C-alpha cells in the first residue's frame, strides 16, 4: 500500500541532508563581521579596509570569470538594477518566460516597463529562440533568460535572436550558480548575469543577490543604483572612514547587502564547486536508474553545457506513466514515501497568484492592452512542463548513493500503485 494511504513508506527514519551547510568557520566569519561594528557598507568600520559587501562582489565576479560584480540584498533587486542600468523604463517591453519564479516579471513592472510572457520548451521549461522571436515588438528592449531548475537556456539560440533584434540579454542565473556554457560561466554570455542568494539557492546567504557584468559602464551604473547613487572610494577606507562617495550620475535606492550576509556568502562561495560535484555524482546515479523505469527521463541539457548546476532536480514523465493521476497526487504520494518534498513546478505566471499588478496602486491603471500583452495568451509548453515534471530540492543530492536507491524505489512503487491515486477518498 502507498504510504499516502497508510502503507509502510519506502524510506524509514534516515534523515535527508540538511540545508544550508555551515560549520565553525561560518560561525567565526559571522562573528567577526558582528564584532567589526561595520554591519553595513554604509557605516564606517573601526578597523578600515574594504567592506565584506565589496569583497563578496569582487570574489563572486572572480568565481564567474566576470570583470565586475555587485552585491545586493536580493535577486529581485539585482534584476531591477540590471534593467535600470540598461535604461529600461516606461514604454518599454521586456520578454520574460511564462515559467519562472515571479521576480523577473515583477522587476520589469518595478522599473515601469511591461513584462511580455513567452512560452517555454515543454521538456526544459526554458524559453527558446523561437518563443523570444514571437514576443518581440517595436518596444522590446530586453529579454530575461531564466536558467531553470537544472538546465540552461540555449544561449547560442537566444543570444542570436537578441542580437538580431538589437535587444539586451539579461541572464537570470538564480537557479544556475556556477553552470558553464561553452567554457564560460552562465551570466557572462549576456550583458548582465543576475543571481539570487536566497536561503534555498545553491549559494545561500539567507537573503541576498548579485549581478555580474563585463561592461564597465553597466557596472558603474549598477553600483550607484544599489546604494542611493553612491559609489566606492577609489581606495579601501582607513579606520573610521566611509567607503561610499556621493555621485549623482543616476538616482538609486538602497539595495545594499548587509555585512553579516556577505560574511556568510564569503564562507559559502569556496564550498560551491565541491557541492556541485557531489550533486552531479548523485544526479548521474539517478539518471542511470531512471533509464530503467519506463516513461521517466531527466530534463534535457543543451550539449554546450560543460557543467550543469542543479537547483531543483527535475524528473520528466511521459503522459500516462502514472495513469490518469494528476501531478499533485503523484507528488504527494512520492513525498509520503520519501519523507522529503517532491513537488510540481509552480503555475505559469499568467495563472500565478503572485503576478497581480492591478492589486497595487502603482500598476492599477496599466492599459488593458498592456496587461493583455503581459499575460493574455496560452502557453502550451509551460502547461506541459508543469503537468509532467517532478522536482526535488538540490540538497537531496548532497547525501549518499542509498538516497538515490530510495528515490528510484519510490518512483517505481508510486507508478505501480498509481490507480490507487484516483480513488476519491484520498485526502491530499
Ligand atoms: C529565487 C529567484 C529570484 C529572486 O530572488 P530573491 O533573492 O528572492 O529576490 C529571481 N529569479 C529566479 C529565477 C529565482 O529562482
From TrEMBL:
Keyword Transferase: yes
Transferase listed as a keyword: yes
Keywords recorded for this protein, A-Z: Aminotransferase, Pyridoxal phosphate, Transferase
Signal peptide: none
GO MF terms held by the record: transaminase activity
Cofactor(s) named in the record: pyridoxal 5'-phosphate
Domain of life: Bacteria
Family recorded in the similarity comment: Belongs to the DegT/DnrJ/EryC1 family.
Name of protein: DegT/DnrJ/EryC1/StrS family aminotransferase
Organism: Nocardia acididurans
Upper taxonomic lineage: Bacteria, Bacillati, Actinomycetota, Actinomycetes, Mycobacteriales
Amino acid at each position: 500500500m502507498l504510504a499516502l494511504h497508510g502503507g509502510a513508506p519506502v524510506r524509514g527514519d534516515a534523515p535527508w541532508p540538511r540545508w544550508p551547510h555551515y560549520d565553525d568557520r561560518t560561525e567565526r566569519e559571522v562573528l567577526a563581521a558582528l564584532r567589526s561594528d561595520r554591519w553595513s557598507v554604509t557605516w564606517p568600520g573601526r578597523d578600515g579596509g574594504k567592506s565584506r559587501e565589496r569583497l563578496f562582489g569582487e570574489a563572486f565576479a572572480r568565481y564567474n570569470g566576470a570583470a565586475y560584480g555587485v552585491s545586493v540584498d536580493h535577486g529581485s533587486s539585482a534584476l531591477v538594477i540590471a534593467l535600470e542600468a540598461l535604461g529600461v523604463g516606461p514604454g518599454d517591453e521586456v520578454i520574460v518566460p511564462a515559467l519562472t519564479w515571479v521576480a523577473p516579471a515583477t522587476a520589469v513592472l518595478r522599473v515601469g516597463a511591461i513584462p511580455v510572457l513567452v512560452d517555454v520548451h515543454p521538456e526544459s521549461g526554458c524559453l527558446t529562440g523561437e518563443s523570444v522571436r514571437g514576443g518581440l515588438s517595436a518596444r522590446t528592449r530586453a529579454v530575461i533568460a531564466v536558467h531553470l531548475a537544472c538546465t540552461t537556456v540555449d544561449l547560442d539560440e537566444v543570444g542570436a535572436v537578441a542580437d538580431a533584434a538589437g535587444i539586451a540579454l539579461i541572464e537570470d542565473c538564480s537557479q544556475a550558480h556556477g553552470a558553464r556554457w561553452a567554457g564560460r560561466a552562465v551570466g557572462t554570455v549576456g550583458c548582465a548575469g543576475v543571481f539570487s542568494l536566497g536561503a534555498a539557492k545553491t549559494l545561500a546567504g539567507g537573503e541576498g543577490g548579485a549581478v555580474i557584468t563585463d561592461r564597465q559602464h553597466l557596472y558603474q551604473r549598477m553600483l550607484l543604483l544599489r546604494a542611493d547613487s553612491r559609489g566606492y572610494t577609489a581606495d579601501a577606507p582607513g579606520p573610521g572612514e566611509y567607503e561610499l562617495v556621493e555621485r549623482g550620475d543616476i538616482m538609486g535606492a538602497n539595495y545594499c547587502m548587509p555585512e553579516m550576509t556577505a560574511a556568510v556568502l564569503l564562507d559559502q562561495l569556496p564550498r560551491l564547486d565541491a557541492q556541485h560535484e557531489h550533486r552531479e555524482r548523485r544526479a548521474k546515479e539517478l539518471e542511470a536508474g531512471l533509464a530503467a523505469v519506463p516513461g521517466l527521463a531527466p530534463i534535457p541539457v543543451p550539449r554546450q553545457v560543460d557543467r550543469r548546476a542543479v537547483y531543483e532536480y527535475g524528473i520528466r514523465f511521459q503522459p500516462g506513466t502514472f495513469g490518469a493521476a494528476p501531478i499533485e497526487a503523484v507528488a504527494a504520494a512520492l513525498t509520503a514515501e520519501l519523507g522529503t518534498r517532491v513537488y510540481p513546478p509552480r503555475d505559469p505566471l499568467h495563472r500565478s497568484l503572485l503576478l497581480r499588478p492591478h492589486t497595487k496602486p502603482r500598476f492599477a491603471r496599466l492599459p488593458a492592452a498592456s496587461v493583455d500583452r503581459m499575460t493574455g495568451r496560452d502557453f502550451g509548453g509551460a502547461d506541459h512542463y508543469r503537468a509532467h515534471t517532478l522536482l526535488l530540492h538540490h540538497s537531496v543530492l548532497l547525501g549518499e548513493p542509498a538516497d538515490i536507491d530510495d528515490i528510484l524505489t519510490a518512483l517505481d512503487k508510486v507508478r505501480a500503485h498509481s490507480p490507487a491515486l484516483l480513488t476519491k477518498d484520498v485526502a491530499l
